[in-house]
Amino acid sequence: MAAASPEHPSREEPASEVAPALVCRGLDKRFGATVAVDGVDLEVPRGSLTALLGPSGCGKTTVLRMVAGLSTPDAGRIEIDGRIVTGRGVAVPPEKRNVGMVFQDYALFPHLTVARNVAYGLTGLSRSRRRARVAEALALVGLADLGHRLPTALSGGQQQRVALARALAPQPDLVLLDEPFSNLDAALRTTVREDVRAILHAADQTAVFVTHDQEEALSLADRVAVMRDGRVHQVADPQTLYTRPATRFVAEFVGEADLVAGRRAGRYLVDTPIGRLATAQALDAEQVTVVIRPEALRLRPDPQGAGEVVAISYFGHDQLVQVEVADGRLLRARRGPRLDLERGQRVRLEVDGPVIAFADARQPEPAAA
Ligand SMILES: Nc1ncnc2c1ncn2[C@@H]1O[C@H](COP(=O)(O)OP(=O)(O)OP(=O)(O)O)[C@@H](O)[C@H]1O
Ligand SMILES: [Mg+2]
User: Residues lining ligand 2 (ion), CB within 5 A?
Assistant: First the structure.
């Protein structure tokens, strides 16, 4: 890790003394009647990798573009390393923000060599400094020997690394990556992801990447901001996001989840079609929706069981068993590779650990007297 200095504060310093790499406050952006971004608040700690996760059209790219200065918000404030770059009458142009950007299509110049692509954003440096910086950036992404090639003579994964090297070469405060892996085929994507994470960590680089792939967000990011319809629903580390989703949307969008209706049976107890379950948080509402994760659902053969096996999808390393319960609802159970259940079999259902429950908006509580 870099030694503590004004440019590279160590992670051990108290958070209060170090401004986050990026702060967004109350960002709004409309396109005509479309509300693309609606009151987005976001803080990105220095040296961290944050994912902006959400379905298509939820405003992820619009947020990145506003941070980069390529688009102007209708309201709100953006600070990079403690300096206001947007808002309060300030509008710092993109090239003065010290932000690197990697676009989905990499946007490499096809007629320039790899080295000249990487050198492109390096202004105000002597020739020798610039050459050194290019070599450093190419070494960082593992392409030290390919500086003379044209981008068209590179694989997709290599082009992706050139784009990353170009973004890193000016030593930006912040790197923004918009769907950086979506152009790669599935086999390559996993290795390139890991490489990119290692490169960013090695450079102690703060970065924000956009994805609509929840697995990608969970496996790569230190923190994930989940967006829907222009709003941030939750910002948390992957485990908190998965085990303590703040909203029903987050519960369903991040990981696999089946929902069942529940009725409060105690402060931490809920009655459901599959029996009484313990809840992770205290229940206030009478009617709730309970989240069941497939890996938490245990099935045991039982002729008197509450469920019936209706489908089995076998994947080798595991299997997904669909069970129909009392109200016709289907629940999924993820189990190991042993095929010990069959279709039509009755099973008893048990849930490992406490469940998450949300107050059910569709069945409002009785109005207070
Ligand atoms: N320049 C524009 N003009 C008009 N509408 C726009 C413009 N840019 C974005 N939008 C709209 O704003 C909303 C958010 O778009 P944005 O590109 O930020 O979504 P996204 O989350 O990046 O989606 P995707 O995952 O598909 O890339 C969408 O409804 C989109 O159609
Ligand atoms: Mg987008």
Answer: 61
